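Exercise: predict the fold of this chain.
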Amino acid sequence: MSVIKLALPKGSLEKATYQFFETAGYTIKGQSRTYRPIINDSSISVKILRPQEIPKNIQEGTQDIGISGEDWIKENKADVVKLLNLEYGKVRIVVALPDANKSKNFSALLKNHIKDKKQLRISTEYLNLAREYLLNNEIYKKKYGKKSPSIVTPWFSTGTNKDVKVVFSFGATEAKPPEEADVIFDVIETGSTLAQNNLKVVDTIMESSAYLIANKIALKDPKKRQKIYDVISLCKGVVEAKSKVHIFMNVKKNNLERVLKIIPSLESPTISELSKDEWYSINTVIPKDEFLQILPYLRKYAQGLIVHKPVQILPLEKIHEDEGK
């Protein structure tokens, strides 16, 4: 089996990624001392990269699979296969203004700058997302049409609309207003940092979470594809387990059909006859949000209810179907 190259993110996604992989059954050693840690699977080589870099590296094939935020996949316009939403690292890309600014949203801010004939200065790390957001704004389209905003970085400048300037931020974007920027497009988890810097959120550009992504060519390679789908299976098992509970219960024969009618399951519950006459054991996995709804009925018709939080639930049939496509 070919060795696949796995890119894991450094920075804000780093800790959660290692916890996720540990739950999936992987052990990664040396990540605090090297950018090439060791994983307990000889068919995988790991490299640590910034999440901003990973989508392009996956696209270009220097890495086969990797984890990055959906925001950076979209920002890089990366031509990759999105294999699985890992459902952690959840953030929002937002528009934020100084508290002192009375504009209720970005459109109102832009309208005021147009009225006052003032250049609107935007600070952000997300240049492509900012450009797309502006070109889709109704006030912007009405005034400037398809004219691209001015985008300024230390390496290049582009765009023809000097009335709206997007300046690349190297970080600490929340510190830019009001001196260096009128508005920022920034990433937040809770928004507390913005509040501490006297900024308010007035719009959400997109929501993002960590994704497992793959290079298109690697995914078509028969040898690499096998190992990639092993990784998908284990990762999907962790994601599935987050929303499920594993329950065991004993039920009298005369209540068995009543219980079977109310409990959902992945396929069908496992039913075992107990040594005690007229008693059965039911073993199944159900959605966590449905458990509380059926609990009153289980209390009435079942005994000895045991609830476990599963670590992994591997939907192997579904994985197999996807792999065959």
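Check your answer against the key: The longest strand covers residues 199-208.
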